[in-house]
Amino acid sequence: MRSWSIAVRVLALLLALAVLAGLALSALLYVQAQRAAEQTATAESRALVVAIADDPTVRAAAVGADPVGDLRGLTNELLADSGADFITIMAPDGTRWTHPDPDEVGGTYLGTRAPALAGRVYSETFTGTLGPSVRTIAPVHDGSGRVRGLVAAGITVENVSLDATRDLPLVLGLGAGVLLVGAGCAVALGRYLRRITLGLGPTELRQVHDLYDAALHNADEGLVLVDARGNVQLVNDRAGELLGLAADVGQALPQPVATLGMPESVEQVVTSGRTVDAEHHVTPDRTLVVSQRPASTGRVLLVRDSTELMHLSGQLRSTQAMATALRAQTHEHANRLHTVVSLLELGRADEARRFAAGDLARTRRLAGGAVTAVDEPFVSALLVSKSAEARDRGVRVEVVVAGQVAGLHLPSADLVTVVGNLVDNAVDAAEGSEEATVEVELSRIPSGLRIRVADTGPGLGGPDGVRSPVALFALGRTGKAAGPEGRGLGLALVRHTVQRLGGTVEAYDDDGAVFVVELPPGEDAGR
């Protein structure tokens, strides 16, 4: 059975509170009306007995021989003219001289007389012959100031209650008004809570929260929620890991974006608020794919790790480049071997010998130095292939080796990625230029291996103007004409590979574009 939703619970609670508030207010107002009626009755009886006690007729009767006969008519008139229920004039010992009930005349007054006998006016609620009443008693003095009698007047509690009951419609009306206002507020709040809680109960909301929290913090993608004021409201575990944030960052939220310590390029995306779709950002140890979308309360940043994907992509491109280089080298070698065999079959041994010697010398000039220096046959095959391809496009590739750099133990796939992409870009840039040339220099430096690739093309800015060297290495950025899908990956792969190997890469203009990569020795170097 489904439990009550939060909206229904709050509505029931508020309605109960409204009913209680209405009843409490009604009771309070009625008590106040009752108290006001008693105060009014006390004031009226007090004024009445003081006036009667000071009346000369009453004073004269109190010292006369027949106070009962002298006062009978007076009290009846006063009862008819006032709102009192009884007026009793008595002797100091309490013997009644007057009473609304003639049978009670001569009887003893029921009530407190001591304060009046002491000369004071005294009020109380007391149960007498007419029932509970609010009464006041006052002394009657003679000419010398002696107390010669007492005057008591009062209004029964029943009549006081009737006076309070006259205000009951107003009291009930106010109570009903409070109840209606409270019920209206309760209904409005209940509808609001139903809308924002989707009609779910506390247990269901807790289950949904736990489910979403578990999914959020165990997701493979990083998620960052930023409100409209630029404060980060949520960072899931994966986002903290990918962005290199502190482990307890989630406990210190919300806080401004600038205080989290995000990578600079990612922080710029967040603070700009611009919409981003699968934008790549390279950090010292990762390549991140960042997307940012507007949300109803701010914006949402999604972060994915493409480091492994980039590595695999680089390996694939390297493998493709090596395969292409080996096929080209095999094809070239087969052609040359076929030429030598043909010359021998024709009996032209000297020409065959000269052709083979010249081809060997040219091959050594092209890649022999690289093979000896880097101790990496794949680089040699790659350069042979790239040289042949470049020659077909009218570009001359010159390989220069400076120093002995064998034994660095650099990964062959990574070397092919760096050299192959830099040479490809250089050939593309140099094609069609005057004296189209690409120079590849491999040299040993104290910190490891230095790879320098220069071309005679238009430079980093290209024909459309100067571009930032940093922008050249961004994924998807290219200065080439529109072409096959995947353009703009080469330099990004170079940068990613170099950073992963702990090296550096820079670019500058010198009668064409120049790219310089410095790589440290591999882990096994020097062992």
Automatic annotation (TrEMBL):
Its EC number is 2.7.13.3. Gene3D superfamilies: Histidine kinase-like ATPase, C-terminal domain, PAS domain. The chain crosses the membrane at residues 168-189. Residues 208-248 form the PAS domain. The keyword Methyltransferase does not apply. It is a multi-pass membrane protein. GO terms for molecular function: kinase activity. Keywords: ATP-binding, Cell membrane, Kinase, Membrane, Nucleotide-binding, Phosphoprotein, Transferase, Transmembrane, Transmembrane helix, Two-component regulatory system. This is histidine kinase. It comes from Isoptericola cucumis. The lineage of its organism: Bacteria, Bacillati, Actinomycetota, Actinomycetes, Micrococcales.
